[in-house]
Amino acid sequence: MAIAAEDVCLERVLPMDEGFALEEVVPETGLPTLGSDVTFQIVSPDANLLVQLPFGSQTQTFLREVRKCCGAGVVGKEDCPPEGETWPGSSKGQSVAGGAPRPSKLHREGTSDALVSSKTLDRRGSTLRSQLLQKEDLYTFLCCFKFFVGSYNVNGQSPQESLLPWLSHDPEPPDVYCVGFQALDPSREAAVFHDTPREEEWFKAVTKSLHPGAKYATIKLVRRVGILLLLCVRRELAANISDVGIATVGSLVGMGDKGAVAIHFRFHSTTICMVNAHLAAHPQESEQQNQDFHDICARLQFYQQDPSLPAIPLSQHDVIVWLGDLNYRLEEQDIERVKKLIDAQDICALYQYDQLKNQMEAKRVFEDFTEGEINFQPTYKYKAGSDEWDTSERCCAFAWCDRILFKGKTISQLSYRSHMSLRNSDHKPVSAVFSIGVKVVDEQLYRKVFEETVSSLDKMENASIPSVTLSKREFFFRDVKFMQLQMEFFIICNGPIPCQFEFICKPHESSYCKPWLIAKPSKGFLLPDAEVTVELEVFVNKSTATHLNSGEDHLEDILVLHLDRGKDYFLSVSGNYLPSCFGSPIQALTHMRQPIQDMLPEAIRNLTLMPLWSGEDFFWDEKPLDIPKELWMMVDHLCRSACQQKDLFQQPGLRAEFPEIRDCLDTGTLDTFIGSSSSVAEALLLFLESLPEPVICYQLYDSSVERASSFVLSSQVVSMLPTCHKNVFRYLMAFLRELLQHSGKNHLDGNILASVFGPVLLRPPPGRPVPDPAEKQKAQQFIQQFLLLEGSSH
Fold this sequence. Notes:
Largest sheet: 6 strands, mixed
GO molecular function: inositol-1,4,5-trisphosphate 5-phosphatase activity; phosphatidylinositol-4,5-bisphosphate 5-phosphatase activity
Pfam family, one: OCRL-like_ASH
Structural class: alpha+beta
Number of helices: 23
GO cellular component, one term: phagocytic vesicle membrane
Strand order of the largest sheet: 6-7-5-4-16-15
Strand content: 15-25%
Low-confidence stretches: 1-5, 29-36, 72-121, 790-794
Distance between the termini: 50 Å
Organism: Python bivittatus (Burmese python)
Helix content: 25-40%
Number of strands: 25
Shape: globular
Subcellular location: Cytoplasmic vesicle, Phagosome membrane; Early endosome membrane
């Protein structure tokens, strides 16, 4: 998270005069720690301080600016403390982890600048770190630690029994605990307000039930709605845990409590990621679960403390453990046959019907992951408070919903089991114990490799300017569409000199590229004769589509690839964007009687830039439509096909179906949509969310929130809307009231619809902070006035 002004305060001001100097502090070992912060000593007549700065380009920039200000300011030998004494107040800013750094002697070297070496040090440090990482096997050894991993879908229940039979099942205590819960609190309040008392209840239940044979420290807890993940380690091992980070991923359009949370950490020199997921529940098929898995893998990223460094994706970990309620079921739907196989303890025969097993064998999901042998009966679905199967009419087929999988070269599974004695939920918890080989640094070997590497670098370095060759410099992206990713690749080949590259901002611009473009990686380091493939991605979303539709922006950009100590290379990126109803204003769409892609660009531009509050359509002869035809097509389809569909607007659609729906709306090639109603419903929400001016205009947002408690006052706000926005709002409210007429079958109610449509119809103006829970509730209440109160008057 970026540091804002209110996060810091001014303690002291040090003048950068002749008595000011700055120098790096050498650690006690005399060797830098890989990835560690850089410690500097600041010396002035009034203060002697130790300050830690994060490694990276921002530190280098800071040092460069200090150098500009203070020139060649150093302290002489007469200003240093006597031999054997410490600097007064030298503990300020000192790290608490590991050995304390020792200050090095500051001295005067004629006319040399005390900061001359800072840039060289940064460049040399990058090379040194890179080569030491490549030689890691020469100075590390594997040490095995025991990890306990547990997963439990608690079905919204509070803990009512001890978790000792689950968490302390083995006679020997584990070194690390990773405990995950799903369905912690399925209430809508937990999703809206991001708070639930269940978090504290289950946290206490876990900490009370950790193995009594050891003392544990809590490293991290992360929760998203009902998915919680907790990491604990033995207290004596906690100092070896570093670089802890978290990430969360929700379902598309934020619907439901499905998704994943993850914890990333470094144990000694091994990177480990624990993922707790609750995938979509589709008993009859596994495509949705597969899609959820791939979506989570693509979106999980761990941002580093240095914002200039790229985020760490899931794939860049030495060990990954994936646990949770994955919701894969049995392909055998005959419940009686399943029960007979269970009663006969023929787990092997029953396992042949497991969806996850069959999908993994078909290489459709969890590629390169491993799951241990399952020798326990299905963990779902039981009557709460018992070990009896739930045989009610609404009971889903029995299944191994709760799973633990793993990936990595140094991980092996010691046990995998369920825990039948816990009866709190309709699921049974599962656990697995792993032996994970962790890379531990041998200090003597590290010193030897370090010194050899430094010697090698000394021979390599020279004054030559680095240079690279690019496999391609011009890129054209043809027929780019809304929410459709296009990619191009090129290769950077380095010459004989180590090279640091980075895409840099052009003058008077805040980003190196336009918002619809990204380069991966955007910066990096290349050893001599090495090469890297750079991926250019063009992706138009709701925030960039409007200006491309109107012609205010075009798919044109110049990327500047900068080499540290070298020259700049210029890359040309261009393309053509196919206009879309997504991201177009309501007012413009009501004037389009033909599909948007059949219209001339100049006509689209004029309509898109038409003033919203102009009153009369002074330059357009034809009478506008009451509502956009694209909106009518989606709502009409849902009215005809999905009014009685269960969980409409609560289950995500299939991502593969959206392009067909978008093309149908933008080209008019089909009269009916191809795909599921859930996909059309999700497209409708995305259409509304992409409007540059929401249905309830930004100008009326504050009035809407203030008057949300009264139907009469809320109606007055609607009456002030431009005609086209007013028509759209009333049309949508009529549609939602029609859905409520079928609530007995579609299981929808006013609260659900208001919580889904409130955030897309009533959005705060750009630049405003994210609404707090009370403000969100008022927006939801505004919509409810028209779903319930107006509905009762008709």
